[in-house]
Design a protein that fits this description.
Bound molecules: 5'-O-[(S)-ethoxy(hydroxy)phosphoryl]adenosine
Distance between the termini: 60 Å
Shape: globular
Largest sheet: 7 strands, mixed
Radius of gyration: 25 Å
Number of helices: 20
Mean pLDDT: 96
Number of strands: 30
Structural class: alpha/beta
Strand order of the largest sheet: 5-4-17-16-18-19-20
Helix content: 25-40%
Low-confidence stretches: none
Length: 660
Amino acid sequence: MSATDSLKQHPGLIPPPEEFIKNAAISGMDAYYALCAEAEQDYCAYWSRLARKHLAWQKPFSVTLDESNAPFYKWFEDGTLNVSFNCLDRNLENGNADRTAIRFESDDGEVTSISYRELHKKVCELANGLKSLGVGKGDRVVIYMPMAIEGVAAMQACARIGATHSVVFGGFSAKSLQERIIDAGAVALITADEQVRAGKTLPLKAIADDALANGGCESIRKVVVYRRTGGAVDMDVTRDIWLHDLMANQSSECEPEWVSAEHPLFILYTSGSTGTPKGVQHSSGGYLLWAALTMKWTFDLKPSDIFWCTADIGWITGHTYITYGPLAVGATQIMFEGVPTYPDAARFWKMIEKHRATIFYTAPTAIRTLIKAANAEPAMHPGQFDLTSLRLLGSVGEPINPEAWMWYYKNVGGARCPIVDTFWQTETGGHMISPLPGATPMVPGSCTLPLPGIMAAVVDETGAELPNGQGGLLVIKRPWPSMLRTVWGNPDRYRAGYFPEELGGTTYLAGDGAIRDKDTGYFTITGRVDDVLNVSGHRMGTMEIESALVAHALVAEAAVVGKRDATTGEAICVFVVLKRSRPAGDEAKQIAKELRDWVGKEIGPIAKPKEIRFGDNLPKTRSGKIMRRILRVLANNEEVTQDISTLENPAILEQLKQAL
Ligand code: WTA
């Protein structure tokens, strides 16, 4: 029996629709296994073939993979290309010039469309503008923008001139922005007057001014400001310039800067288990290859598709599946400024109906929020809208529980659309483990099998591969083109964090737990194995939040743990010891509010703790180590059944059991 036939035997698997299989880029499991076999047989030949076929090279590469300085791998290094050329110029040559590249819908429902020709012009003018400010190859540019066509254009303009961008999510605080500017050593900042979400404005330029005024950001020479709302801003005449003024009178042609495939396209900061956020550095060639290829394989993108990824460009999902992937394959995509619940919780369904979206890619948290809303108010139910344009659904960012999967499948996809539950990370650049919509039989809650060429495995702490059915650490055994190249300015952290000696020093450690199904070999991700929380699909380091808390004048000690949450997946729960006596009643509530706002200001609103509990002390071992696993149990309001014999102060548990 072939592997394909044996998969078909398993009960509980949901096969992709026949019609979908017929037309899919990877059609049927035999095609999937054939690609896997090709990669197994000659790994370099496989990637070389794909890189030649799917990217436009200015000078072709001769060496596919250089492992001589592992784990600092190099892909296609002597080849040269330009990412923006691949995303824009290539489409002008391909007959896509007048195709809509982006259909942008603002918070209040206004739609602006831009064709590939127009986007090319915008990017060239902006690239020339940046050059006129003295920004060039190798410089870092921080982008602190709302969801806007101009945000995508700013990223593409950097790519065009060989500058390395670092996008900072618009929900981050002045302090977080400042830290990232300093770490990246950025020479320019591109921002907007204000950001609009759910009818409210957020003064991005004023926050940026704050960040720059705090000191340490002297590397920034110029600030470019996109006028989104026309709200009042302070312009420093020697430093600040309006984006439209910068672009005016610039040539609409800008010769791309040809760079090595290894040239850093961007740095994106993400949370780790220790220390400050790390700057995950991505390449140009390998990254773009996988962005383009996963558009074709995982999303099965066809010329007739209207693709919609609801992520923000401040996160990796927005980088790969808004700014780079869709443009690299000439897609027409929807881009949305707002939030799923404004003006009401039917916004997504109305937009799918209005724009006739065919592929919809969102996060489980959004789905769970909309399930709740639909249950509460029938008018918000997707069944009230014409969603027949959809042919494929996707999920990303966190585990999707089987109930939410089923609801999504039936009510949004009409039981007709496959769901691709895509597991990947900021570090991986693109999808790692995911069903292929025209091949892989689906199981709700499982991201199924690695994409062809991705050598994923589950191992124990020594690196030994575990048999199916046994949970362990998720690793990728071989380097792949879109992997991170280093942690910006900190190669030791890259090596120690992702390629630990215990696993041999060349195996990529994802930081997630996983288990493979006994019969199918399918992967299920069991969640982070380090001190990283996943709140609404956003990564948060517990250490970062703890550092912010202890920086508050009242706080002596703080410990942050994750608490299960039916909507956001995990929620932030903190245990705090104050420098003064333990507060109670209204005073405790008052201080808790102050601390929440403090964290919001220090890191950003997304890091605000959901729950704060005060104690006279924290549970500690005799050597003074905080016992977080016990705190996790308390946060989830469970009975402590673990061995607490090493605990020095067991009496404290009673006190910490009570939520405010
Ligand atoms: C989690 C987001 C289960 C995981 C693209 C990972 C997932 C972290 C899935 C990366 C999924 C992402 N199923 N868990 N389909 N996708 N995760 O860097 O814990 O923001 O390590 O990248 O999200 O988050 P990041």
